[in-house]
Amino acid sequence: MQKYFLSDEAFSTKIISGDDAFHIKNVMRCRINDEILVANNGESFLAKITNFIDKDVTFEIEKEIIGNHELPVFVSIFQGYPKGDKIEDIVKHGTELGAYEFIPTLMKRCVFKLDPKKKDSKLLRFNKIAKEAAEQSNRDIVPNVIDIKNLKEINFDYYNVKIVCYEEASKNGELVEFKKAIKSLKENDRVAIIVGPEGGIDDSEIKYLESKGFVAASLGKRILRTETVVFYCLSAIGYEMELK
Amino acid sequence: MQKYFLSDEAFSTKIISGDDAFHIKNVMRCRINDEILVANNGESFLAKITNFIDKDVTFEIEKEIIGNHELPVFVSIFQGYPKGDKIEDIVKHGTELGAYEFIPTLMKRCVFKLDPKKKDSKLLRFNKIAKEAAEQSNRDIVPNVIDIKNLKEINFDYYNVKIVCYEEASKNGELVEFKKAIKSLKENDRVAIIVGPEGGIDDSEIKYLESKGFVAASLGKRILRTETVVFYCLSAIGYEMELK
Asked: Which of A17, A91, A185, B20 has the most CB atoms at less than 10 Å from its CB?
């Protein structure tokens, strides 16, 4: 059943408008009395459609759905800004895989040039992708995509587990650090994962991050593309912590 | 360093032609005496470029590179044929993550319509994507993308571990089977993983596959898109078996 994350206003007035109303009417082709899932403020409910008024949809709550669909840890993905629209795939699949938030990050080897005029519309688009992926994958929350930051402007004190994915580490046969970090995770840990852009992470950045408490870890014997690194990290965390 | 998988002919004559020669000259902008990696028949070598003759590149072998970049098991991905060009992403990222082969599979809920005229060119394209991804990710072999098959035409006797990824299982709170199967893997196991198309796997297909020795497994608490399922399975196998 399709889930819709509602604004506080839509949730309190029980009126869905805009894109979500369009989706309910024209994509899902719902009718009066059909059921949908609505979510607000981390809680999910089974709801029944009561009417279609102009372009809006009204509903009533039937019951709260108890069921946690979130990873037991908060994973923040600091993604070295990649080329093209790769970041859209990272947000889409990373949301399905349970990321808590995404922070597009400017690093030395980023070739991406930030056009200040387009920044706000890009951020809006990334957050829309996260909302749609969260609805499709039945998340309890929508991950935030946060404003682009420079690596060295970020305060990492908030995070208690810090991993930087480092391809060079794998060339030296390092195959221990990632699993050690993931196996040590405890519920509600705040995990920062840094993924370099296509060109990788500069040595000076690795040194800087190590000084901030990061562990440089390899993800196995093959060289992964930047987007694949994110899929791997989140899959491994889900596999380790969610499956029994 | 970029790797090139060479045909037996190119490897024995020490002459690279076609796309690979173009890539060496025009993308990597190599010069005489530059080093590249060449692979043939599962073995990798450090090689030195000796000349550029017309559109061809000649080389000599410097030394064999010993280093296993393969997963310790053979994972065959039976992918319910998805819409659009998703299968290209599955082959690309699945190759980086270590899949042994891909078998596009026709299942009940596939909306894909096979155009017999385009089949051969599609298969050629998928195999080219696998080769490029294998080179970029430093694999020792290039995974095969095998001709499209109907689910019930496939003989699964060859495989000794058989998993069908089943979203409905997660609704019943099943979180045990996948990890149990992966944790029991032994070196050189032949693993069949079946992933449904967008619409999922039909109940009758699940029953059929269970009768063939498959275990139906959920991949956690969220609903994953078909392509994300492949990334998750291969990442989890790499995490479990390759990291220490």
From this structure: A91
